[in-house]
Amino acid sequence: MNRFQITGPGQDDFADMVAEQVERALARYDEAINQSTMVSVGKIAGGIAAAVTLLSPKHRRAIDTIHADLPALASKFVRALAAEAARRTEAGAAGAASPTQVLLADEPPSPLPQSDDLESMLIEDWAGRVAGSTYLEENLRIARSTLHRWQRRGEVIALRKGGRKHVFPLAQFVDGRPVAGLRDVLSLIGNPRLAWLWLTRPAAQLDGRIPLDLLRADQVGEVIQAARVFAPS
């Protein structure tokens, strides 16, 4: 047996060990994250780590050759997993497709929810991790004055969260700045919620690719053209 391979009960123990370490890391990284989410993230990380140990040496070497692409691939996997979890919640577990079927199926992207529907949902349920100006200043070193200037100019996506408070999706920032192209997409689509939803889901206008992933890869022109097609007339 390969010395990296873990089988039987040992594999479950290894997955639990990884999950525990990930939960501890999350607790140190973000005190605001809830326990249920930490457990879920830990299980995902542990399951993936254990699955990798079962790969053949050939397949492990193949993974080693795409280090630069792994963050984007992982992001795509997690978004698909979250979308499937949301579908199961809405439709009920009985009769729902398995995550494997959904992740591997070659289907066109699902229609986006309407803006009015988003108003009744928790922001974190559809927008991912968001944070206020205090968190961004303390953790990303983004001064409040800079953040407000970006917001006034439409260079950053701000989502209203009750009353007059705004929160900012963390995935839009790269090296402490909004990713290039956000201003153009927001000006075309108009509604910040609809713009962020489009940016973070597989887009039919981009052959099922995720617009935000393309912006982060500096493929701004392609995303802007797709946003023009998507934008309400």
Model description:
- With 233 residues, this protein is mainly α.
- Helix content is 58%, strand content 5%.
- It has helices at 9-29, 35-53, 57-64, 70-91, 99-104, 115-119, 123-127, 133-139, 144-153, 182-189, 192-199, 211-216, 220-230; strands spanning 130-131, 159-160, 166-169, 173-174, 177-178.
- Strand 2 and strand 3 form a beta hairpin.
- Helix 10 packs parallel to helix 13 (220-230).
- Residues 1-9, 93-108 and 113-120 have low confidence and may be disordered.
Overall helicity: 55-70%
Radius of gyration: 19 Å
How much of the residues is beta strand, in percent?
Answer: 5-15%
Report how far the terminal alpha carbons are from each other. Answer: 61 Å
Uncertain residue ranges: 1-9, 93-108, 113-120
Mean pLDDT: 77
Overall strand count: 5
Judged by helices, strands and strand pairing, the structural class is mainly alpha
Q: Number of helix segments? A: 13
Trace the largest sheet across and list its strands: 1-3-2
Report the order of strands and helices.
HHHHHHHEHHEEEEHHHH
- Which outline best applies? globular
How many domains? The number is 3
Largest sheet report:
3 strands, antiparallel
List keywords for this structure.
single chain, 233 residues, mainly alpha, 3 domains, three-stranded antiparallel β-sheet, 13 helices, 5 strands, 58% helix, 5% strand
